[in-house]
Amino acid sequence: MTHTRTLLVFRQTANRSELHMVLKACKLLRVFGLQGVPELVNFPESVISLTLLRYLSVRQTNIESVPRSIEKLGLLETLELKDTLVTNLPKGIGKLHHLRHLLVYCNAVNNNMMFGAAQGVEFSTSKISALSISNSLQKLSLIKVNTNKKFLKALGELKDLRRLGLVDLHREDGRELCCTIQKMDDLSTLDVRATSEDEYLDLDHMQSGSPPLLLQHLYLKGRLKRVPEWIPKLTSLKKIGLKWSKMDADAEPLTALQDLPNLMELDLVDYYTGQVLGFGDETFKKLVALSIDKFDKLNLISIGEKAMPMLKKLTISRCPDLKLLPFSSGDLELLEELLLFDMPNEFIAEFETDSERREDLKHVGVIHYSRHPGSYQSDGFKDLSPSKWR
């Protein structure tokens, strides 16, 4: 094994002594991954001797901390700590001047549909400044926004970032965050979460003509008074997730999104507090997947002529007042999947009776329902696909 360059271990029982022996014999390792090993609680110290390592992943383990000696891995480019228990990083992180990808979070609860399910990591202003010296970092997520007023300003020095994930953003930090991301010309993924689901994200402070135009994936979690004015200018956007926005009808929640020329996926959770959600004529022309979840007062979805002509997957969840199917003949002709979760009995009854409205869905290949949001547990599952109709 002395010439081994890559070692990936998946869902194996972690024997500490055996792991030590294996790593001791693999001094030339460039890539090491230890994934899905819940028995692993302590960071494997033997890794620190692998000074040629470029990629290190210990995702889906119960590791709680990273030793300061991580700084000895001076050639490390990727450190992946996703789905671990790490909540803080040592000072040694700032000495990894070749680091390009730093991905870390822990799931505080098993239900990822809850606000704050994924917890970010503490990160000081000094660590940000240290990483900005080489300016090689491209992915940084999920990071808790430091209360130090210089934190977001220091973050702006990471100008080559392509992916940025932040949690615990206060409303008053919105202006500074906008100034920060304006400097990141290559940013393609932005994920921002407020301190709570009742905290507003105040992000309408982008200077005219200065939003990150290469942004392809945008996720905003927190209240919005309206969709920030700069979002309709992001012509490269392919996927948007807007959660816990709680906007009312006066905010025209779909207007700012409907003409984005490359938008393919739209995920909306607790996004809108109104009763009617309308998709206008000839809007969302490239949308392929749409998810509508937890619209508590919604009782009608209207779909205009030639709206969402490319839609293939539609998911509707937890809309207790929605009683009627949002379709009529000619709507969503390319739809392949209709997935329903925790919907009222009257809504589901539409699929179980022979009616003209149900007939409009005979072209849909898969229609599934479950009482359990996001899960197809055997109890409460129904296959309502046309092939099952009688």
UniProtKB/TrEMBL annotation:
<feature type="domain" description="Disease resistance R13L4/SHOC-2-like LRR">
    <location>
        <begin position="3"/>
        <end position="317"/>
    </location>
</feature>
<dbReference type="InterPro" id="IPR032675">
    <property type="entry name" value="LRR_dom_sf"/>
</dbReference>
<dbReference type="InterPro" id="IPR055414">
    <property type="entry name" value="LRR_R13L4/SHOC2-like"/>
</dbReference>
<keyword id="KW-0677">Repeat</keyword>
<protein>
    <submittedName>
        <fullName>Putative leucine-rich repeat domain, L domain-containing protein</fullName>
    </submittedName>
</protein>
<dbReference type="Pfam" id="PF23598">
    <property type="entry name" value="LRR_14"/>
</dbReference>
